[in-house]
């Protein structure tokens, strides 16, 4: 009876205790993210040399996968795609929306988890990002203002910084809060007939995320 009580108590304690990530574990998180560009844009040259552009925020779902090489060190890959609209400023402000584009920014970070055995586990990460712009189209307002225009954005490669925290909700499920800074620089090319305008764009968004994760 004594042995049975010890075994039962041990099993109950094991079930009640959080299952912290160990070497070789996978963490999978599903987040809702807000992508907020901190854009700095050059002039639209040569035709609109006094004009600039603005890029709006976007909200989207995101999934990420983290492999724990040790209890403290993990590698995270995030997968998400967001749609953004580009609007005119200064002389182009009356046109309003100029174009829309989809952005696919796969980002790989190497993370350090400071308190791997705690119920609240902060981490910091740094890594690389490759951003793909696709399905980029000029707006009807821009085409009406200056003529049929083809818009293209050059893909970008840059760095990424990350900070976040996992907080246990149950044995295998945890709440995640995460913020990233992603270095994204691109060049916009607007072709209207034989005329080509170009603009340098530094997007450099902050990506705020909240979600639920589990470990395997």
Structural write-up:
With 216 residues, the protein is mainly beta. It has a single domain (21-215), classed as Porin (Beta Barrel). It is 10% helix and 61% strand. The protein is built from two helices and 15 strands. The strands form two sheets. An eight-stranded antiparallel β-barrel has the order 1-4-5-8-9-11-12-15. A four-stranded antiparallel beta sheet has the order 2-14-13-10, with helices on one face. The radius of gyration is 23 Å and the shape is elongated. The two termini are 35 Å apart. Mean pLDDT is 89; it is low at 3-17.
What would you say about this model in short?
The chain is 10% helix and 61% strand.
């Amino acid at each position: 009876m004594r042995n049975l009580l010890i075994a039962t108590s041990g099993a109950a304690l094991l079930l009640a205790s959080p299952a912290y990530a160990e070497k070789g574990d996978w963490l999978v998180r599903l987040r809702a993210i807000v992508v907020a560009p901190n854009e700095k844009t050059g002039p639209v040259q040569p035709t609109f040399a006094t004009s600039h552009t603005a890029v709006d925020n976007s909200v989207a779902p995101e999934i990420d996968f983290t492999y724990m090489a040790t209890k403290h060190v993990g590698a995270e890959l995030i997968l998400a795609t967001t749609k953004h609209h580009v609007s005119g400023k200064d002389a182009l402000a009356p046109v309003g929306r100029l174009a829309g584009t989809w952005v696919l920014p796969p980002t790989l970070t190497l993370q350090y988890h400071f308190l791997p055995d705690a119920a609240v586990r902060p981490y910091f990460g740094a890594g690389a990002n490759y951003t793909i712009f696709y399905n980029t189209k000029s707006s009807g307002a821009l085409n009406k203002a200056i003529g049929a225009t083809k818009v293209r954005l050059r893909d970008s490669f840059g760095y990424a910084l990350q900070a976040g925290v996992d907080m246990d909700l149950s044995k295998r499920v945890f709440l995640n809060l995460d913020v990233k800074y992603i270095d994204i620089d691109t060049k916009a090319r607007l072709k209207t007939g034989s005329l080509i305008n170009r603009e340098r764009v530094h997007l450099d968004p902050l990506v705020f995320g909240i979600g639920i994760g589990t470990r395997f």
